[in-house]
Amino acid sequence: MNAPDRFELFLLGEGEKKITETVVNSIPNCSDFMLKKEDHTVGNLLAEHLKKDPQVMFAAYKIGHPNVPEVLLRVQTNGQINPREALVKVLKELVAAYGQLGREFQKELALRQYADQGEGSGSGGAI
Amino acid sequence: MDYDPMAMDDAESLGPVVKISQADSVRVKFELQNADISFANSLRRVMLGEIPTIAIDLVEIENNSSVLADEFIAHRLGLIPLNAEGVEHLLYSRDCDCEEYCEHCSVRLTLHARCTGYDNMSVSARDLVPVGERINQTLGTPIITDKDGTGSLILKLRPDQEIKLECIAKKGIAKEHAKWAPSAAIGFEYDPHNKLRHLDLWYESDPKAEWPPSEYAKWEEPPVEGEPFDFDAVPNHFYFNVETAGNLPPDGIVAEGIKVIQQKLAGLIHELTEGEGDGGYDGPRSPEYNSGPDTNYGYSTSYGGNGGNQSAWGGGGGTTPFGGQTSYGGGGWS
Ligand SMILES: [Zn+2]
């Protein structure tokens, strides 16, 4: 009866910001990013790829409570770029990588359909 | 077999590589290479939970003299897969200007059956009839794939029993309710020989005999006896098996999944790079509104005919520039 609406898992609330940056003053070049209405899909992806960046010293994420759709992402850089720039860089790389994945997939699929037609079997062309 | 990651330099600047091993109307099986596990897993999660489809969400029952309770039938109706091709042109009801639902944000289906014979009668998905205006002639049509052509069984009627109802099918994602999931299941596997020891296989006496090799075991080199454990090894080959529930074609699920995750990431880029207080949007909006009006995600799908259909976003707000032709490469990000 008092369960929260399921759409609260992915719809931002009134006036809620998708992502906010809080500078961590006690640590140099470090920021916490709070991502609202996101989960491990984005949290894990960003943290893992930030760690691959040579200019990033530290990156990690946590989801404080499994029922609360918020991701806290901490990023510390080496000072050559700031955490926000590092995050944007990784985001752009990931959009490009998924774009390439999509093109690769369509290319492979087209090749496959072409091959299936060549075989003359009835299985091709169904998709 | 050139599965050595070092040998992949000829691929498009070491980006993800795909090999499809099976593709038909029910499933697509593919191998993803040159990607890390977070990349592969995010795609899997998005395909499971965040691809918009259409499912029955409201049921108004006019007459039900069957043995099943109204809410029981309503639940069964919700789970019937409906054709979701063209759902990108359907609005979410919450984003629509209408009061509750309209032809821009829903599809109406009716069901009316009465058992007039002497034998029990089956009422199935085939008997659900889409009525009224629709965005296209297939959106919201029940999926029928069985040999008899009846579709999912909804209920049975005894002689003289009757069922009469009207359903409103709406757009949604499986994160809200599993009935909106496009995939019946997504197989996801890596490291078939368990070389990385991410699995700790339980066994009675002999794990080799009790755990038959996966179908992908022959795709990778088996471990050499006495080989030292490689502590730096990470999974690099992922085997997907995307099976559709019928509402979207299996390759469409992959394409849509990629699109959804790109939209998510592009929305974040937009938020991070736009100046503060640009009054863009605040307040609840459906996920695909999150991205800025000038975002070009570069990659778009074209299942559902010749792609490039014009979208008919009723309400104003942000428009999503999908449906165009693929134009990654040069412009866009990076
Ligand atoms: Zn409406």
From TrEMBL, chain A:
This protein's UniProt keywords: DNA-directed RNA polymerase, Nucleus, Transcription
InterPro entries: RBP11 (IPR037685), RBP11-like (IPR036603), RBP11-like_dimer (IPR009025), RNA_pol_Rpb11_13-16kDa_CS (IPR008193), Rpo11-like (IPR022905)
Gene3D superfamilies the record matches: RNA polymerase, RBP11-like subunit
Listed PROSITE patterns: RNA_POL_L_13KD (PS01154)
One GO molecular-function entry: DNA-directed RNA polymerase activity
One of the Pfam families matching this protein, by short name: RNA_pol_L_2
Keyword set includes Transcription: yes
Ranges for domain DNA-directed RNA polymerase RBP11-like dimerisation: 31-101
Cell compartments where the protein resides: Nucleus
GO biological process, one term: transcription by RNA polymerase II
GO cellular component assignments: RNA polymerase II, core complex
Main location: nucleus
UniProt entry tagged with the keyword Transcription: yes
HAMAP family: RNApol_arch_Rpo11
Protein family per UniProt: Belongs to the archaeal Rpo11/eukaryotic RPB11/RPC19 RNA polymerase subunit family.
UniProt-recorded name of the protein: DNA-directed RNA polymerase II subunit RPB11-b2
UniProtKB/TrEMBL annotation, chain B:
Chain positions covered by the region annotation Disordered: 275-334
SUPFAM superfamilies assigned to the protein according to its UniProt record, in alphabetical order: Insert subdomain of RNA polymerase alpha subunit (SSF56553), RBP11-like subunits of RNA polymerase (SSF55257)
InterPro entries on file: DNA-dir_RNA_pol_30-40kDasu_CS (IPR001514), DNA-dir_RNA_pol_insert (IPR011262), DNA-dir_RNA_pol_RpoA/D/Rpb3 (IPR011263), RBP11-like (IPR036603), RNAP_Rpo3/Rpb3/RPAC1 (IPR022842), RNApol_insert_sf (IPR036643), Rpo3/RPB3_RNA_Pol_subunit (IPR050518)
Sorted UniProt keywords: DNA-directed RNA polymerase, Nucleus, Transcription
Biased composition regions of type Gly residues, renumbered to the chain: 304-334
Organism domain of life: Eukaryota
A single GO BP: transcription by RNA polymerase II
A molecular function GO annotation: protein dimerization activity
Localisation: Nucleus
Domain DNA-directed RNA polymerase RpoA/D/Rpb3-type: 27-271
GO cellular component entries: RNA polymerase II, core complex
Pfam families, sorted: RNA_pol_A_bac, RNA_pol_L
PROSITE patterns listed in its UniProt record: RNA_POL_D_30KD (PS00446)
Classification via SMART domains: RPOLD
Record note on quaternary structure: Component of the RNA polymerase II (Pol II) complex consisting of 12 subunits.
Family to which this protein belongs: Belongs to the archaeal Rpo3/eukaryotic RPB3 RNA polymerase subunit family.
Name of the featured protein: DNA-directed RNA polymerase II subunit RPB3
UniProt organism field: Triangularia verruculosa
